[in-house]
Design brief:
The protein is mainly α and about 190 residues long. The protein has one domain (about 1-190). It has helices at about 1-5, 15-35, 55-80, 85-95, 95-100, 110-120, 130-160, 165-190; strands spanning about 35-40, 45. The protein has a two-stranded antiparallel sheet. α2 (about 15-35) packs parallel to α4 (about 85-95) and α3 (about 55-80) crosses α4 (about 85-95). The longest helix is centred in the last third of the chain and has 32 residues, at about 130-160. The model has no long low-confidence stretch (mean pLDDT about 90).
Length: about 190
Amino acid sequence: MKKLLFNPFEKYDGRPILVLGLLATVIGSALGYAFNARFDGVLDMHFVDSANYVEPFTDNVFNIAALFAALYIAGYMINKKTRPIDILGTVMLARLPFYFDTLTNINGYMNEFGKKILEAGPNLQNLDPVDLWLPALLGLLTLPLLIWYIALLYNGFKTATNLKTTQHKWSFALALIAAEILSKITFYLLYS
């Protein structure tokens, strides 16, 4: 079960992973709409007052494109036989943990909590301690989801490229950072 959760790429080839990734993207975008989540970066998700259906879907398309481009270029530099379908499937399926994280905003809870924090400013001691325990617990849930996301990306990339050396691992890390920068620039240009 652990292998299926963290490295399904060893068991399944490009097409089933791509189909699952596409399904996850559609369902995840719908969850983003339902729970007012914006996926405004390769490594980011934020809650807003209201998200229309197009925004989470468009966010995912831009993030997938940026991550695919960066990882495919890095993968091709490592191994010329790297298949685009394997990288695309990896990128799409790896975003699954972000979609689970949207559920933390049921009834706009996390968005409202974020507003309370911003209103409190440096006077956080004015917040009721009881109001802090659930967001703290939900925040602790987010960290394992982010780790799961990066583990899926890494394992899929490793399988697709036959990654072996430390230099290859650095290529993965740099590609991930480049994709985050590219996505942030894209969102800045589109929405500012």
